[in-house]
């Protein structure tokens, strides 16, 4: 990553955000804040209700419900298949004292096991994948720790961002651990931008009815890079 390219991208991003009255940022910030507000330590008898409450939005459900993509629906089935194992899975994911790569690996393992239990107990089930991919796991992590983890915009957007900032290693598969490291670096330099405090004040103004979560600017920066690439490619 070349810092002058990252700083140039950040400069363009912050400048645009200070000049626009658009509020696309409401959706990602409100989604993460809603999860964070309603999450509570998972318990055997309440995990399903907690999970369902956490994944709600006043804007759109596209993060967890699209054509052939139903991570929320599938997770509910996984929880129902074995609430005790599901509770263990969520407690482990929420344990920020452990390494991120280990937590993600184990969470995927638990989901695989829960899916097999679901299929065993529901002979007519057509589910072959649990849909707990990098995108929705990034929502879980950001919802649990909104000041430390950022939403993941997808492989295509992350790859474009890496190209724009001159990374010599362009990702070809989803790697949430690497992404979160890059997001943390991006946020560090966002904070160093001369207009960062001005943007923070603008986003925290009373006219906005959504709580501004500064670390999620890293996600917005990635999306901005993707949109900028589309504009220059036309």
UniProtKB/TrEMBL annotation:
Highest taxon above the source species: Bacteria
Name the record gives this protein: Uncharacterized protein
